[in-house]
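Let us begin with a simple case.
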Amino acid sequence: MKSCITAAVLAVLTLLDYPVHAEEYPPTDGAMRGFVLVKERTAAPDVPFFDEKDAVRHFSDFGDKVLLVNFWATWCAPCVKEMPDLDKLQAEMGSDDFAVVAISQDLQGVTKAKPFLRDKLKLANLDLFIDKKLKLGRTFGNQGLPTTYLLDRDKRIVGAYTGPADWASADAKALIQHVIDEK
């Protein structure tokens, strides 16, 4: 009986042109169970942020790379916990197709975030970016830190994860690779 109901539901959804193949959706299994996919991808906010040399940056500066945009701060314990995983993810997957964009929400900017990232945490693979007045974070609607967004090649939001995540996990890499492989 259960299989008949399942078949009937799938038939109706197919008639309605509803995508029913799980392989069409980025996987949010295991360590990525908390990653929330958006129903319809929309453009990420086009609000400038800064690199550690104080140059203005936009997501479009990254070309057609898939981006994992992480908002963090030195005073945020869960952020500090996940930073080594983000560094490892950048080391393993960073390429012409993908980059981790770690954006500090520290009001003291580079003077606070750079020594924290480089000297205290000893992270060498992440580039440092700053949201000087927290405008980008507010425009995204961040409800807390850390908050991480996955952007596709067209800089549309695929989904988000609020709180610390295991970004070096196989589940995170599978999610990201799925978006990289989209054409």
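The second case is a distinct protein. As before, the sequence precedes its structure tokens.
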Amino acid sequence: MTSPATDKRIALAAVAGAHGVRGEVKLKLFGEGIDSLSGQPSLTVGGAPLKLKDVRAGNKTAIARFEGVSSREAAEALRGSLVEIDRASLAPLAEGEYYHTDIIGLPCVDGEGRPVGTVAAIEDYGAGALLDIALPDGKRSLIPFRDGIADLADGKIVLDPDFLA
């Protein structure tokens, strides 16, 4: 795979609203838990750099406190904002691992190298990753992201067109 774009920002969560009256916010997490947030020295919230003071697990959400956000009104003003990090600050990956952000947008080709579409999204309903392929005719197709069906090679996805619906 080609080198990932390091100038991208990656969304880890979104601010769902204020929590209490002291500036805490409820976060909708896009990852598997608060660990992805708690280890980050620098975050961007709604396009502005903010330092995370504290984060804890909430009831189906996370509860966070940012430096400089000390009232319910200030917390509520962040509602809908993405909580992001720079792509370059993500941990390096082992061979065969990937971040979704590095796959979305990649061109898809068949075994002969002919264009087939573009990866629009990655879905996972528990049985493994599915690539959502945007086809040239505007239709979409979900295919398993498995060896022999959809392979990551040289910055593109080489897929078996028999799996396109």
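The chain has a mean pLDDT of 88. Residues 72-76 form the longest helix (5 residues).
Keep these points in mind for the review questions at the end of the chapter.
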